[in-house]
Design goal:
- The protein contains 2 helices and 7 strands, in the order βββαβββαβ.
- By secondary structure, the chain is α+β, with helices and mostly antiparallel strands.
- Strands 1-7-4-5-6-3-2 form a 7-stranded antiparallel beta sheet.
Amino acid sequence: MSELALEFTGPLKRWTGATTANWFFVSIDGDAAEEISGLALMRRLESGRRSGFGSVKVTVTAGSSSWKTSVFPTKEKTWFLPIKKQIRKAEDLAEGEPVKLTLEI
């Protein structure tokens, strides 16, 4: 059972690293980012430790696809949600287009 369920929409963005690899993600900001940050802080205070890279495990739903992943905090106080290729193909997601997502944390 999830502690928190969030719905939000954001554009699919591409990040190209130092290699030829491309990563696709959606930035989570605003109220949704604040909710995740608050939950991450609460968990850190309860356990006395921080998860890898400050990540938070989530279950994501986009259209009819659901998968487990993690969201990662950024210096800009947003969260980085990676979107894997098989999901982008299954849901016909294109770079720059808005993606409606539900996160269960």
